[in-house]
């Protein structure tokens, strides 16, 4: 509602990121409430506690407590960071190349399965299609399988990002970055180039079509 939160999670990694976001946000909320209460109480009362102004116990508490809070944030953050970098025997590899201003895809496990993916102009959209997000060739992938994405660029910096899968990897000329995705449910998932790569930067949409393995095999054979 009102597009205030994240998109619904489609991968286990994105679910973990959502939980970590809620965990951190609650800590920030509690700290902000405490600070606001202390500031308001200082401004609204004339009473002062002289022994508190120079107390070793208070200084010890407000030194150790922030350290504990930072550890409570850092540990789950590092855990998710290592989970995102983990690659376990991918079943399929897809190479993504960024161009000005479109994406090209190559299914490296197949002999001749490559295509370019351009945004559909607004004038050519069909009823129900999303403006600035639809493409002429969708990336069809099997769900519930580990897929490795190899990401690079032909010209300038791009960034291949699909928020509902928790993916965002830079496409850098002369460098091959990789990321993995596992989709837990079928559907259409949209993303865009997340790097300011030029005048048509906002017209580089990404559409992933996650389907059961049987349908993917039929699509790849056709």
TrEMBL record:
One of its GO terms (biological process) is electron transport chain. It is found in: Mitochondrion inner membrane. GO terms for molecular function: copper ion binding; cytochrome-c oxidase activity; oxidoreductase activity. Residues 1-88 form the Cytochrome oxidase subunit II transmembrane region profile domain. InterPro entries: CcO_II, CcO_II-like_C, CcO_II_C, Copper_CuA, Cupredoxin, Cyt_c_oxidase_su2, Cyt_c_oxidase_su2_TM_dom, Cyt_c_oxidase_su2_TM_sf. Binds a copper A center. GO terms for cellular component: mitochondrial inner membrane. Its cofactor is Cu cation. Residues 89-222 form the Cytochrome oxidase subunit II copper A binding domain. It comes from the Eukaryota. Keywords: Copper, Electron transport, Magnesium, Membrane, Metal-binding, Mitochondrion, Mitochondrion inner membrane, Respiratory chain, Translocase, Transmembrane, Transmembrane helix, Transport. SUPFAM superfamilies: Cupredoxins (SSF49503), Cytochrome c oxidase subunit II-like, transmembrane region (SSF81464). It catalyses: 4 Fe(II)-[cytochrome c] + O2 + 8 H(+)(in) = 4 Fe(III)-[cytochrome c] + 2 H2O + 4 H(+)(out). Pfam families: COX2 (PF00116), COX2_TM (PF02790). The chain crosses the membrane at residues 20-39, 60-82. It is a multi-pass membrane protein. Component of the cytochrome c oxidase, the last enzyme in the mitochondrial electron transport chain which drives oxidative phosphorylation. The respiratory chain contains 3 multisubunit complexes succinate dehydrogenase (complex II, CII), ubiquinol-cytochrome c oxidoreductase (cytochrome b-c1 complex, complex III, CIII) and cytochrome c oxidase (complex IV, CIV), that cooperate to transfer electrons derived from NADH and succinate to molecular oxygen, creating an electrochemical gradient over the inner membrane that drives transmembrane transport and the ATP synthase. PANTHER family: CYTOCHROME C OXIDASE SUBUNIT 2, CYTOCHROME C OXIDASE, SUBUNIT II. Belongs to the cytochrome c oxidase subunit 2 family. This is Cytochrome c oxidase subunit 2. It comes from Equus caballus. The lineage of its organism: Eukaryota, Metazoa, Chordata, Craniata, Vertebrata.
């Amino acid at each position: 509602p009102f597009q205030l939160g994240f998109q619904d999670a489609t991968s286990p990694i994105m679910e973990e990121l959502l939980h970590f976001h809620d965990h951190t946000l609650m800590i920030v909320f509690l700290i902000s409430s405490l600070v606001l209460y202390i500031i308001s109480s200082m401004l609204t009362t004339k009473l002062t506690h002289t022994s508190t102004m120079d107390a070793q116990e208070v200084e010890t508490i407000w030194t150790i407590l922030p350290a504990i809070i930072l550890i409570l944030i850092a540990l789950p953050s590092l855990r998710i960071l290592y989970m995102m970098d983990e690659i376990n025997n991918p079943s399929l590899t897809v190479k993504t190349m960024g161009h000005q201003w479109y994406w090209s895809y190559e299914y490296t496990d197949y002999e001749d399965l490559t295509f370019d993916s351009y945004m559909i102009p607004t004038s050519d959209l069909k009823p129900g299609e999303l403006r600035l997000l639809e493409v002429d060739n969708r990336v069809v992938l099997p769900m519930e399988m580990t897929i490795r994405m190899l990401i690079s660029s032909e010209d300038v910096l791009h960034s291949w990002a699909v928020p509902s899968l928790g993916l965002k990897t830079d496409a850098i000329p002369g460098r091959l970055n990789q990321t993995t995705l596992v989709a837990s449910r079928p559907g259409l998932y949209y993303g865009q180039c997340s790097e300011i790569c030029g005048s048509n930067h906002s017209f580089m949409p990404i559409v992933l079509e996650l389907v059961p393995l049987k349908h993917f095999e039929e699509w790849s054979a056709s």
